[in-house]
Amino acid sequence: MLRTRVIPALLLDGQGLVKTTQFKSPVYVGDASNSCRIYNQMEVDELVLFDIRASSKALPIQFELIQQIVSECFMPICYGGGVKTLEDFRKLFYMGVEKVSVSSLLFDNPQVVKEAIKIYGAQSIIATLDIKRSRFRKVQQVYLHNGKKRIKKSLDEVIALLNDIGVGEIIVNNIDKEGTWEGFDCDLVRYFADNTQVPVVALGGAGSKEDIKTVVQQGHASAVALGSMAVFQSKGMGVLIKFPKLKELKELLGTK
User: Which positions are annotated as active-site residues?
Assistant: First the structure.
């Protein structure tokens, strides 16, 4: 078993999967169910699926499509996008989703997240934070609704909120790095990893296997999520559903 989890992070836009760069310019990369079948063959251990349209346009969760995707996947799925109520949590877990990711709900209605944690356990409720540096003050700030709304809280205040809510894991997604292949923001990931007691997943910027190793060693990430590396041949090249081989990851990260 790998010492550090490495996970494909897929973006659902309508009925299909896309990949963005800095949350812009979505490129269609394929059908979600077909992609999951390919990841099955690659023996991927876990998968993260974000519905970016549900987040940015406040659309309802596509339960029927999520059910179809879950039925095709042999690995646990973490789903995020449009989750607002306890009934949303119930439906997602009932259809087989392993973990539910929330973002705006952390700030709009944290009590619902707390109640979900009481029912389903902290290990099943994940906080995803989309973060980018502000244009003028050059400080890192959390954004909601696919990068469209800025939260007027410092990162320290956000960490305090997450500790109070009691989420089981935090996905730290750097918007400035997302889709660039330039490597992770290790300082940002380490900031969360060193100031929280829960696992931190690095997302945004992976361009090579060495980037994975670097964010684990220098960013203290507990797990690593891959976007572009999981759906493109390489930077600037065409679509190809792929994933590092288990042997390569074991050599890179070690085993338990």
Answer: 130
Detail the DSSP E strand segments found in the chain.
Answer: 5-13, 16-21, 24-31, 47-51, 77-80, 99-102, 125-133, 140-144, 149-150, 169-174, 200-203, 223-226
Query: What is the rounded distance in angstroms from the CA atom of residue 115 to the CA atom of residue 119?
Result: 6
DSSP string, 148-210: TEE--S-HHHHHHHHHHHT-SEEEEEETTTTTS-S---HHHHHHHHHH-SS-EEEES---SHH
Say what the pTM is: 0.95
233 DSSP 8-state letter? S
pLDDT in tens, 141-196: 999 999 999 999 999 999 999 999 999 999 999 999 999 999 999 999 999 999 99
The two structure tokens encoding residue 37 = 């079948």
